[in-house]
């Protein structure tokens, strides 16, 4: 399972707008279909490696892409067959069908398979689950190599529905831009390896996949405070806050203070258990405050969150601190990053609906903060509409304490100054890259341990 790094993502509606813009600028939709079909043909040619190919064509433009691919593959001498669900219903698909001179087989239970199946039945346009008879036919192709055109048939391109395709893809070829279904659960695993075919559509930069992780190298004139000072508040479970403070240093901060605890996992962390809260919050060198790891809902948490909000410092709010800060977030100057997991998000924003991207964006607008909606399909959303999707992350991060590490990394990136959204994106990239280096057996402590530096 993989997707290209820093690739554009478009919803179904945004894709239609982008295609219409191409037509206005002089590129007819027929040319876009020809390019799409050529990309499908190239990918199928490589997957088949000389074996026969069966292309399943639907009645819409996704099927039109399949007819173009069939024509081009036949021109290369490939053993290609076409099966149609129904007659084409759009002008573009009808024209593409007219360009295919070979036979067309019916889509039924008697349809013979081929080593490579190209699924060009529906693409992103599906609005309901597949009919049972069609689903049964597709399941009969299990075990074959499957190339899906745009998305596997049986899922919606915008990723908001829970249906799953009866025939998951080994490879999905996204046309023009990735779609939300490629980067959201539960549909993303069914897309297999996602490739992007650039067919000449100008996709905006507002929604993208996670860029490759980069290490920010300090300048020659850097010192511990210019690299960022992070203040982490410990609650009744100080081990979680200790992980956050250690992560802040490992992720590049020059100075970390753990307030409210006498113990820290690294000797370089300054520990202060005498509640010098106000003094530290007024320190102009503090670039970011992290609060929430290991700090359950309580009057003490509410008091500390209020003080942190009053300070005007950039904040990273995790776990129960998110709900504690919610009433004042939009009214408070400064930047904030919220890092809820699924349960925390649902409790804090119970009225939000739609896909995970829709909900993350709505929460960011409501709070005025950057939202890191954690999970295997982490979504990072900014109040101005920017979104980064971090699929796939690392499955080894599905263990206790890794969210505390992420909060500390967000604090490190935020303490350097600059845009909170960019800081959150960098922190998520760092988090996933560290997990990938460690791999099996990872526990949260490994993400901040000395042995990681020797890897």
Describe this structure in words.
The structure is a single chain. The chain has 455 residues and is an alpha/beta fold. The chain has 2 domains: 12-205, Rossmann fold (3-Layer(aba) Sandwich); 229-454, UDP-N-acetylmuramoyl-L-alanine:D-glutamate ligase. Helices cover 34% and strands 16% of the residues. It has 13 helices and 17 strands. The chain has a 10-stranded mixed beta sheet, with helices on both faces. Strand 16 (378-381) and strand 17 (387-390) form a beta hairpin. The longest helix has 20 residues, at 29-48. The chain is elongated, with a radius of gyration of 25 Å. The two termini are 24 Å apart.
List the helices and strands and how they pair.
Blueprint: H1 12-24, H2 29-48, E1 53-57, H3 61-75, E2 80-84, H4 91-98, E3 104-106, E4 116-120, H5 132-139, E5 145-149, E6 171-175, E7 193-197, E8 207-209, E9 229-233, H6 238-250, E10 255-259, E11 270-272, H7 277-281, E12 286-291, H8 299-311, E13 315-318, H9 320-325, E14 336-339, H10 342-348, H11 356-367, E15 370-373, E16 378-381, E17 387-390, H12 402-415, H13 420-438
Helix pairs in contact: 2-3, 3-4, 6-12, 12-13
Strand content: 15-25%
Structural class: alpha/beta
Strand order of the largest sheet: 8-17-16-15-14-13-12-9-10-11
Domain count: the total is 2
Intertermini distance: 24 Å
CATH topology of the largest domain: UDP-N-acetylmuramoyl-L-alanine:D-glutamate ligase
- Name the CATH superfamily assignment of the largest domain: Ribokinase
Helix content: 25-40%
- List the total number of helices: 13
- Based on the coordinates given, report the CATH architecture of the largest domain: 3-Layer(aba) Sandwich
Overall geometry: elongated
CATH class of the largest domain: Alpha Beta
Overall pLDDT: 93
Gyration radius (Cα, Å) is 25 Å
Low-confidence segments, given as residue ranges, are none
- Number of distinct beta strands: 17
Summarize the biggest pleated sheet. Answer: 10 strands, mixed
Order of helices and strands: HHEHEHEEHEEEEEHEEHEHEHEHHEEEHH
């Amino acid at each position: 399972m993989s997707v290209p790094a820093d690739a554009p993502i478009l919803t179904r509606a945004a894709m239609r707008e982008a295609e219409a813009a191409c037509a206005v600028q002089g590129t007819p939709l027929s040319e876009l279909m020809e390019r799409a079909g050529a990309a499908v043909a190239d990918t199928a040619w490589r997957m088949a490696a000389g074996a026969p190919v069966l292309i399943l064509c639907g009645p819409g433009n996704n099927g039109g892409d399949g007819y173009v691919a069939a024509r081009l593959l036949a021109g290369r001498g490939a053993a290609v067959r076409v099966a149609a669900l129904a007659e084409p219903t759009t002008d573009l698909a009808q024209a593409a069908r007219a360009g295919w001179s070979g036979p067309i087989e019916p889509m039924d239970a008697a349809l013979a398979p081929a080593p490579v199946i190209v699924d060009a039945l529906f693409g992103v346009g599906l609005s309901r689950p597949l009919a049972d008879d069609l689903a049964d036919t597709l399941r009969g192709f299990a075990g074959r190599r499957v190339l899906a055109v745009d998305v596997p048939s049986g899922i919606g391109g915008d990723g908001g529905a829970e249906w799953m395709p009866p025939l998951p893809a080994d490879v999905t070829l996204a046309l023009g831009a990735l779609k939300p279904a490629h980067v959201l659960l539960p549909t993303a695993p069914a897309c297999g390896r996602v490739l992007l075919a650039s067919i000449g559509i100008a996709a905006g930069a507002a929604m993208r996949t996670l860029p490759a992780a980069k290490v920010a190298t300090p300048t020659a004139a850097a010192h511990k405070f210019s690299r960022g000072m992070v203040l982490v508040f410990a609650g009744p479970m100080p081990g979680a806050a200790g992980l956050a403070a250690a992560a802040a240093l490992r992720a590049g901060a020059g100075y970390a203070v753990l307030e409210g605890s006498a113990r820290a996992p690294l000797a370089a962390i300054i520990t202060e258990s005498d509640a010098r809260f106000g003094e530290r919050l007024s320190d102009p060198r503090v670039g970011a405050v992290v609060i929430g790891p290991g700090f359950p809902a309580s009057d003490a948490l509410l008091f500390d969150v209020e003080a942190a909000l009053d300070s005007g410092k950039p904040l990273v709010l995790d776990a129960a601190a998110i709900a504690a800060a919610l009433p004042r977030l939009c009214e408070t100057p400064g930047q904030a990053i919220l890092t809820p997991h699924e349960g925390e998000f649902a409790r804090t924003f119970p009225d939000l609906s739609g896909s995970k991207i829709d909900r993350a964006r709505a929460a960011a607008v409501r709070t005025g903060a950057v939202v890191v909606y954690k999970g295997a399909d982490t979504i990072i959303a900014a109040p101005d509409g920017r979104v980064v999707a971090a699929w796939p992350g690392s499955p080894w991060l599905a263990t206790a304490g890794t969210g505390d590490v992420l909060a500390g990394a967000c604090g490190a990136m935020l303490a350097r100054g600059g845009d909170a959204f960019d800081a959150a994106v960098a922190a998520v990239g760092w988090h996933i890259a560290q997990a990938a280096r460690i791999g099996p057996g990872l526990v949260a402590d490994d993400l901040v341990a000395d042995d990681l530096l020797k890897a």
